[in-house]
Amino acid sequence: xxxxxxxxxxxxxxxxxxxxxxxxxxxxxxxxxxxxxxxxxxxxxxxxxxxxxxxxxxxxxxxxxxxxxxxxxxxxxxxxxxxxxxxxxxxxxxxx
Length: 96
Prior knowledge:
The chain is mainly alpha-helical. Helices cover 52% and strands 4% of the residues.
């Protein structure tokens, strides 16, 4: 893989470093939730996963039994996730 990433005018230093590290270690996925950062990662052909996707994979792997408790914690925090997305994640996890 190449040692550079294409950036936009609002590139975040932390996200840029994460993308460079992804390429340097040939990672499977980059964990990123920020919408703009996800678009930049996709432009750079970086496979991404978000926090909610990690929860679904953890349940599928048997590492957790439910995603709902974690979604409840997220919903009660400063992080804003649309209720429709939370419902979609519950449906994907078979918890709806």
